[in-house]
Task: structure prediction
Amino acid sequence: MHGLSFPESAQNSSLHENIQIFYLAPQFSSVHEAQLLKGMISYLDLGIGYAHYLNKGTINKDQKYSVPKSGLGMNSNIGVEYKFHTHLGVKISISVEYYIFKHLDEKIEIPSKMFEKRSKLGIFMTSPQLSLIYPL
Result:
């Protein structure tokens, strides 16, 4: 929740952070079996909803801070699966998540002059996946 801007005198300072992200959203999914390629299935998932971010930690083992913030989260997943047997397939996909938190400097008290406050924070994550599918 902050831009690190350490003054020269703070080079020997220690910082321990614990960052948590919680995301809850409805998701719309589309699953289509290809007509031309037997056994090929495509997936598309899209979601938008509530995201909660919590950054807490300690500076120099004695100054504690906690910065919670709620915002907007979005996710998408696109992938294809090839079923080469009734109960066995291979799937490749990529997932993308994006979170935006605005107005971060409201009511945020940071106990040290080591940090510069930010007005917004965006988090972008991608996750490629290769899966072995075994439906029961």
About this structure: The CA atoms of residues 12 and 70 lie 33 Å apart. The two ends are 43 Å apart (CA to CA).
